[in-house]
Design goal:
4 domains; globular; Cysteine Rich Protein; ubl conjugation pathway; mainly alpha; two-stranded antiparallel ribbon; 659 residues; two-stranded antiparallel sheet; ligase activity; E3 ubiquitin-protein ligase; EC 2.3.2.27; 10 strands
Length: 659
């Protein structure tokens, strides 16, 4: 059953178990005859076609297998067929993930049939043998543990037990009765104590168990432990030591240790239709979660490992009630943010956006392996997954410590991957860090932001949104001070050739202000930063627009930047706004005393004709009232004048919109 040539020192009686009668077709049919399961739970590996129905889905991560989709009624629904990247499991029948009307004819209430009582002796053999069959798999991982981390050895060790895992999954597929026997053996503490804890028998088997226990204890001791901030060391899921009390808990440990082997991941996920088991699995996964960054950093194949981590985590965190329970009982949000922040804090470098001698801001080094190979992706994906649940997002928004930690992480992305303008030879190919930076900002910053904003829909959420804006402003002020722009709000000559495309703090401020005005009835005059701060906030996004415009013909990555531009453009609009003129009719707004270019009274306006941009231009500029702002790079906003028009080497024209 184990294709391993190195097991000569292990008693052969431990290697093979008899296939008792229930594996035969008659026995299998007898067990299935009493199956009354309501959930599908079919598990698939990567690159398998599955379906997602947004009409029926409660969680955005819901997915169903092809058979359940075909047997269900999804006529006129908003659905799509997709090729699974990380693998998945069918949610048909699970009311916590999808609506009952989307269930197929075989699951949910459609399969709640009254069946005959189960004979007392039907599962007796299975109940006696299953704990030892599971123990055999556990002993295999103990016995092959390598002192030095080696992805190749781990992969080979997991491969040895492919057939054995397939056999266990066949048992699970017999239905609810056999699944219950398996999950009971996995989650009961008494079973674990009886099987693997001393005293051991004084024979060859006892010596083998004693030896395997020493190897297990050594593996636990050498496994990387987290280094959380002192104020969070008391959290159970951030503890330095791991204590396992069930077979399932030790299985999860070896799953992490052996880099999430596909056969073990599928085996553990196959039993998710058992709700009690699902909660135990989720709790155990969260208790080990803070070790994911170390596993990803040490892996030889972080891309495959990332997919397998998400294959498991997405099934566990898509259930809103279970995710909320983990947040409340095991501080899941704290664990996720701390894990992500610690992974990134190891690759910080001094920011070079402004004079390094006067700059004490540190940003992520996008040339590092963690960024280029997207090692952060599972953590960012899981965080975004749990924030898709409104109850979890509200917990996040109400906790000042969580928000503060999150903005500490966002500050690491603020101004990262500084681009230097090449004035000599042509640059044929962008460095790989260019794409890595855009991917990171999108996945680890923008996606969580939009998940949070999607829950802020009415005036009752205004205080929470306002709190986020306050954090944004405070961290933006700290950032401006760190890069020496708060005191010296201009670009020096040597800084004109350096620019970053990444300003997540600006993005958050703009997006939350926009959402507050649009859906929560907030007034701009109540939530805008001070008039002194606004012009400084618009300068860096403006440089992004100017440089992106000059790069667009040659850079395919600009398409990535385009989708991130909207909020930053909004910051620019707010930055040039004169609050006393907000809401006034366009033709009644007086021309500013300074920075008007030419003495005119027109400005950029919304469709309703109210002023949202403070710069003035003459009506004769365009018969279509197309308004432009002339901005000289390196100058204060108030330094704009008609004299800049002729200095084309430094001036750029920014199209803002129609009146």
């Amino acid at each position: 059953m184990f294709a391993d040539d190195d097991d000569d020192d292990v008693p052969r009686s431990f290697l093979f178990f008899p296939m008792w009668g229930v594996r035969g077709e008659p026995g299998r049919a007898a067990v299935r005859g009493y199956d009354n399961h309501a959930k599908c739970g079919l598990v698939w590996i990567p690159h398998v076609v599955a379906y997602r129905c947004r009409t029926c889905g409660i969680s955005p991560c819901m997915s169903i297998c092809r058979d359940c989709f075909k047997r269900g009624n999804h006529t006129d629904h908003d659905f799509n067929m997709f090729l699974s990247q990380a693998g998945g499991a069918c949610d048909c029948g699970d009311t916590s993930v999808m609506k009952a009307e989307g269930f197929c004819s075989d699951h949910g209430i459609n399969n709640c049939q009254n069946k005959a009582p189960v004979p007392d002796d039907l599962m007796v053999v299975a109940e006696a043998m299953m704990p030892r069959m599971l123990l055999r798999l556990l002993l295999h991982f103990r016995d092959h543990n390598a002192k030095n981390h080696n992805s190749t050895v781990y992969s080979r060790t997991a491969k040895y037990c492919d057939d054995y895992c397939s056999m266990l999954m066949e048992f699970n597929n017999m239905g609810e009765l056999m699944r219950r026997v398996m999950t009971k053996a996995l989650i009961h503490e008494d079973t674990y104590r009886r099987l693997v804890e001393p005293p051991f028998p004084s024979n060859e088997y006892g010596k083998f168990l004693e030896h395997s226990r020493r190897k297990y204890e050594e593996a636990v001791r050498l496994f990387p432990s987290p280094e959380p901030p002192d104020e969070y060391r008391h959290l159970p899921a951030l503890g330095e030591t791991i204590v396992h009390k069930t077979l399932l808990e030790e299985f999860i440990f070896w799953t992490f240790k052996y880099e999430f082997p596909q056969n073990i991941v599928c085996f553990l996920l196959n039993m998710l239709p058992d709700q009690d088991y699902k909660e135990h699995l989720t709790r155990t996964f969260v208790m080990h979660y803070c070790r994911i960054p170390s596993v990803l950093e040490m892996s030889n194949d972080p891309d495959t490992l990332s997919n397998r981590v998400v294959h498991m985590s997405v099934q566990l965190f898509s259930n809103e009630s279970l995710a909320l329970k983990m947040v409340e009982e095991l501080s899941l949000l704290h664990v996720m943010i701390i894990s992500l922040r610690q992974m990134m804090s190891k690759i910080l470098v001094a920011n070079t956006l402004h004079d390094p001698k006067k700059n004490f801001h540190y940003v992520i080094d996008c040339a590092k392996r963690v960024m280029k190979e997207h090692c952060y992706w599972p953590l960012a994906s899981d965080f975004n997954n749990v924030l898709s649940h409104e109850s979890v997002a509200l917990v996040f928004l109400k906790d000042d410590n969580l928000i503060d930690m999150w903005f500490q992480f966002l500050s690491m992305l603020q101004g990262m991957n500084v681009n230097i303008r090449e004035t000599g030879s042509h640059v044929e190919f962008e460095p790989s860090s260019y794409y890595a930076a855009f991917s990171c900002e999108l996945e680890a910053s923008a996606y969580p932001m939009w998940s949070i904003i999607s829950h802020l829909k009415d005036p009752s959420h205004a205080p929470l949104a306002k709190k986020i804006m306050l954090f944004c402003v405070n961290y933006l002020q700290d950032w401006l001070d760190a890069v020496n722009f708060y005191i010296h709000p201009k670009f020096d000559k040597e800084e004109l050739y350096r620019a970053s495309f990444h300003f997540p703090l600006h993005r958050y401020l703009a997006a939350f202000i926009c959402q507050g005005v649009k859906t929560m009835g907030m007034s701009l005059s109540d939530i805008l930063p001070s008039a002194d701060l606004l012009p400084m906030l618009m300068m860096h996004p403006l440089r992004v627009q100017l440089i992106a415009g000059s790069r667009r013909p040659a850079s395919s990555a600009c398409s990535i930047g385009a989708c991130t531009w909207g909020p930053k453009s909004y910051v620019m609009t707010l930055g040039a706004t004169k609050p006393p003129n907000l809401g006034r009719p366009l033709w009644k707004r007086p021309a500013p005393d300074r920075g008007t270019g030419l003495a005119g009274t027109t400005g950029w306006a919304s469709k309703k004709g109210t002023v949202v941009w403070a710069a003035s231009m003459p009506r004769s500029l365009s018969r279509n009232r197309m308004n432009w702002l002339l901005m000289e790079s390196g100058m204060d906003l108030e330094g704009v004048s008609s004299g800049t028009c002729g200095r084309s080497s430094l001036s750029s024209v920014l199209k803002l919109g129609k009146g």
